[in-house]
Amino acid sequence: MKKILTLAAAAAVLCSCGNNENRYVVEGNLEGINETVYLFDRQQQLLDSAKVENGAFRIEGVAEAPASAILTDARDMRGTFGVMLILEPGTITVARSEQEQNALFATGTVSNDANTAYMTAGSELIREFRDPETTDERREAIEEEYEELGSQALEQNRNNYFGVVMLSQQAYGLSGQEILDEIALFPAELQQTGEMTKIRENAEQKLKTDVGQPYIDVVQPDADGKEVSLKSVVENPATKYVLLDFWASWCGPCMGEVPHLKKTYGEFHDKGFEIYGVSFDNNRDKWLAAVKDNGMDWIHVSTLGGFDNQAAKDYAVQAIPTNLLIDREGRIIAKNLRGEALYEKIGELLK
Q: Which CATH number does the domain housing residue 320 bear?
């Protein structure tokens, strides 16, 4: 379930490709909205606005560069609605979904249409997944179908900016080299877009933390404010393997991994297994409460700055949970060991 919800939320982040000679129009007719609509970029900088008359609105502009945008009806972005759309040449129509009245979609251009088709198909799978009548066996199949849906969307949209968006969402599970190989399959003009540049930069940094690479040291304060380095843990004579674990108390999937971490730590800590947890929490009390209440008895550090964390940059962490397994020679030997996979791997190494 967590895969589906994470991917469904993440896939809503949209971009597109355009040129300086073409114009875009964003229009719609939505009942019950405020008197002005606002168009923001991904950094929440205001791009444009328009008055609403009887629910109808229209914004025109030039698609100077690939960009994703947020359309809402409040200057503080806390309006009655919010929809993310792709700015590209053409007329983009924002409307409510026929299946889900609380959901809005943007259609009318290639990339927006592709995203809407993907989101609609994904929503149908999510509804079936959440249905109490759906069997556990069917839920497992739905997760596989959702993964395949994303792969197909990427493959079918390499010639438009929605394909770039799909790559940015699927890059989490790929190595740095695999991401670069995927980028090479896109047309040159899409490879030069701002979003693809970010993906490439992340991939190049990720190359430095792929399996076989030496670890990068992390030095951050523990609960008492004392700085604890990853190096001191890796080089501890009693340590044979260290799991560098990126997590946060507010992250549901992260907390879902805790039982597996506890099981593995409990059985293999005395044999040389250690965990160095880097929290992306912002709230000290919530961070420490999660550690205490869940009996997470390993090493914990945090700058309490969320993803604004040097370790996140060094390890190209874009989503959590993320983990890396480091051996006593300081080499990364595995990444993203989730669920029972962690227990099985450590069991093989320390049997």
A: 3.40.30.10
Say which range, 13-22, 64-73, 132-141, 157-166, has the weakest mean pLDDT.
13-22
Last residue within a domain, chosen from 165, 183, 208: 165
Q: Which residues pair with 61 in a beta bridge?
A: 24
68, pLDDT greater than 70: yes
**Residue 32: band (very low, low, confident or very high) from pLDDT cuts 50, 70, 90:** very high
Task: Find the DSSP H helices in 84-226.
Answer: 110-130, 136-156, 161-170, 176-183, 188-191, 194-207
Query: Phi/psi of residue 289, each to 5°?
Result: -65, -40
- Parent domain of 161: 2-165
In sequence order, the β-bridge partners of residue 246 are 278, 322
Nearest-5° Cα angle at 125, 123 to 130:
95
Q: How far is the C-alpha of 47 from the C-alpha of 61, rounded, in Å?
A: 9
C-alpha pair distances (Å), 230 with each of 48, 150, 205, 292, 351: 47, 36, 19, 21, 24
Q: Which of 149, 165, 181 is where one domain is finished? A: 165
**CA–CA dist 287, 285 (Å, integer):** 5
Token pair, residue 18, equals 């355009």
Whole-angstrom Cα distance, residue 21 to residue 7?
34
In a domain, 182, yes or no: no
Q: Quick check: 11 pLDDT over 50? A: no
Is the pLDDT reported for residue 19 higher than 70?
no
Q: How far apart are CA 81 and CA 299, in angstroms?
A: 42
Residues 156 and 228 in one domain: no
CA distance 179 to 100: 34
Over range 308-333, report the average pLDDT.
94
